[in-house]
Design brief:
Blueprint: E1 2-8, E2 11-17, H1 25-38, E3 58-63, E4 69-74
Parallel strand pairs: 1-4
Antiparallel strand pairs: 1-2, 3-4
Length: about 90
């Protein structure tokens, strides 16, 4: 058993998921699409969610303090990216 945390459009919600520890990132994203469309994730129901909604998302796998597996599906963030140069006004 694992907890899948999905962050989409500023909302974040957990979904209990029975899965193999070696489930691929692509499968995690496919499962997330299905459960969000179906309304299986409390507070995050998007029936017309595009099939490519999570293509550029990151899958992080961590262990909780009690040893439980936590999987985070989240948008990429620009932390650590080079700073953009500002144009002179």
């Amino acid at each position: 058993m694992a907890i899948l945390n999905i962050t989409y459009m500023g909302q974040s919600a957990d979904y209990e998921l029975a899965l193999d520890a070696h489930t691929s990132d692509a499968d995690i994203k496919r499962i997330a699409i299905e459960v969000v469309r179906a309304g299986g994730v409390r507070g995050l129901h998007v029936p017309d969610l595009p099939g490519n909604a999570f293509v550029s998302f990151v899958v992080d796998r961590l262990r909780g303090t009690g040893g439980e597996q936590r999987i985070y599906l989240r948008p990429k963030v620009p932390f650590g990216a080079p700073a953009r140069r500002r144009c002179a006004s």
